[in-house]
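Notebook entry, cofactor series.
This is the third protein in the set we're modelling with a bound small molecule. For this one the ligand is flavin-adenine dinucleotide. I'm keeping the input format identical across the series so the outputs can be compared line by line later. Sequence and SMILES below, as received.
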Amino acid sequence: MATLTSTSVHTSNLFSREAIAEGTMAFRFTKPAGFEFRAGQSIDIILLNPPETDEEGNTRAFSLVSAPFDPDLMIATRMRDTAFKRVLRDAPVGMQVKLEGPSGSFVLHRKAEKAAVLLAGGIGITPFLSMVRQATNDKTQHKIYLFYSNRRPEDAPFLDVLKEVARQNPNFHLIATMTQVAQSKGEWKGETGLINEEMLAKHLPTLQGPIYYLAGPPAMVAALRRMLINAKVDADDIRTEEFSGY
Ligand SMILES: Cc1cc2nc3c(=O)[nH]c(=O)nc-3n(C[C@H](O)[C@H](O)[C@H](O)COP(=O)(O)OP(=O)(O)OC[C@H]3O[C@@H](n4cnc5c(N)ncnc54)[C@H](O)[C@@H]3O)c2cc1C
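Returned structure with ligand:
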């Protein structure tokens, strides 16, 4: 098992990519021999001699979407028009990259008696998919509630995978919510609107007591944290992963 502080540099190869939601892609890389991580941790991907670059450089941090039990490493990202992402989008399969990591301590607490409440906006789902798939694989007894907010279903990466995990794992509860459902081409029968105290209270047995995990763009993480503090959640029970760069 990797410790939470050890990082090292590895060589890896891109071996597939796929569109997983509107403007959003997943990339799979080979898992280097000896690479171990805990669900929720992140890596730096370093492009080697890319055909183009910009002032942000050739390195970006990504949470691992794949679970530790998976044979490969997957990341997912919103495909903004930056040099790094154009290179990733157009790279030939087999392209070699350097991976640095794993990093971070954004991992599920060990005491299964305490519920975990995961709050994700959009691409912030990445560390949580790893956590819930690993917890399901390990048959941990944690009660896990995932509140997952997107503008429309077509913007929501891995929604179908999460629904399937919820069918497999009776301890995992998925509460997906859409904030701009009127602009969707499909129909939506679940929650609508932003994740707020009322929505949490409707689905959680109790607001105080669980450990809360927040992931996504910094402004969203800050807004969710404020909402939890206003709802009298103890600040010590809130853990965050900010995707700086959004
Ligand atoms: C621990 C950690 C985990 C992360 N996990 C993930 C993850 O799982 N998935 C993921 O996608 N990202 C993740 N990120 C963020 C990721 O590292 C990148 O910063 C992010 O994807 C943006 O990269 P970029 O190439 O699109 O923009 P960059 O080139 O890095 O842009 C940097 C700056 O330019 C601005 N900018 C660039 N393009 C635009 C645009 N189109 N609109 C508005 N502003 C723009 C940004 O505001 C930012 O200030 C994570 C970050 C951290 C620290």
